[in-house]
Amino acid sequence: MRTRALRHGTLLTEIGLGAAQLGNLYRETTEAEVDESVDTAWDGGVRYFDTAPHYGLGLSERRLGARLASRPRDEFVISTKVGRVLEPSPETAHLRDDDGFDVPRDVVRRWDFSRDGILRSVEDSLRRTGLDRFDILYLHDPDDHFAQASTEGIGALIELREQGVVSAVGAGMNAADPLAELIRRADIDVVMCAGRYTLLDDSAAAELLPLAQERGVGVVAAGVFNSGLLSAPRPPADATYDYQPAPPELIARANAIADISERHGVTLPDVAVAFALRHPAVVSVVLGARGRRQVTQNLDRAATPIPDDLWRDLAEADLISKEDA
Fold first, then answer.
1. Whole-angstrom Cα distance, residue 46 to residue 48?
2. Which of 42, 60, 166, 263 is deepest in the core (most CB within 10 A)?
3. Active-site pick, 26, 48, 55, 241
């Protein structure tokens, strides 16, 4: 699989494996499915893996670390995130997590973008994964804590980078504008932008992507299927968009893109992955998956060549911007 480089040389495969499903996102992921996910991704050439303490209250980090422990450490890149410290909560251990993951609530998340909180978070994540270092550390969803995260928080990450504890630092968010502001404020290497550079929402193209390209900051595109609407050749009537029921007009637009895609012999998800990878600022597209079938499906989508004429036809139909074509 082809790779793209961050400015200090860290190489990311064009497709990364997002490990939220390894934390039992929405439902249980069996240990066999975890094995299949990581093994199939590795066999398919994936060498970039992304996780977070938030994913399954540490379960994703533990599972991913265990599966990567036997792989040559210099052959893969792993990122995790900071900003949510996990604290023991025996009084809620009989309950299930209330933030999207099917796991016991024996620990709870506490927002903390202070220097001490970030150092503790990284130490805890190293312990959970069993790894000796991370390659990328992201501030995780600092929307409501941006003042502290963009000063003290990113300062702590830069300090860790200068100490050689991590190779690259940045932030991961579902909004493009704060990521652009962070690039202006701080000496960062990479951002993860979820859902804002897709076939249905290219708002990151207005400011974030040009600024990142100008400053030499890599962009990892996540959420390119917009939480489901673009993940099937034809969106179902109950498709979701950004984790909510998809509006009828967006379903109609997705179907219109699918019409043109099919005329060119490709599918809507094929085009969704290729769309993000076409931008020169994008260094990787991270795709979540559960089990062998989903990982293989994602790898096949990424390997599907897209005819140049398709982009022209989408632009002429006003389904993507002329700039994106």
1. 6
2. 60
3. 55
Q: For residues 158 and 168, what is the distance between their CA atoms, to the nearest angstrom? A: 8
- How would residue 99 be classed by pLDDT, with cut points 50, 70 and 90? very high
109: amino acid identity, one letter: R
Residue 215 CA, chain-centre distance (Å), reads 21
Q: pLDDT tens-digit profile of 68-98?
A: 999 999 999 999 999 999 999 999 999 999 9
- What are 78's two structure tokens? 């792993």
* Tokens representing residue 311 in the block: 């982009």
Q: Are strands 190-194 and 218-222 parallel, antiparallel or unpaired?
A: parallel
pLDDT tens, residue by residue, 185-239: 999 999 999 999 999 999 999 999 999 999 999 999 999 999 999 999 999 989 9
Residues 139, 172 contacting (CB under 8 angstroms): yes
For residue 18, pLDDT over 90 is answered with: yes
* Listed residue (151, 158, 144) closest to 185, CA to CA: 151
Amino acid at site 297: Q
pLDDT digits (tens, 9 = 90+) for 35-49: 999 999 999 999 999
Instruction: Respond yes or no: is residue 55 known to be catalytic.
Output: yes
The three-state (H, E, C) secondary structure of 106-165, written as one string: CEEEEECCCHHHHHHHHHHHHHHHCCCCCCEEEEECCHHHHHHHHHHHHHHHHHHHHCCC
pTM for this entry: 0.97
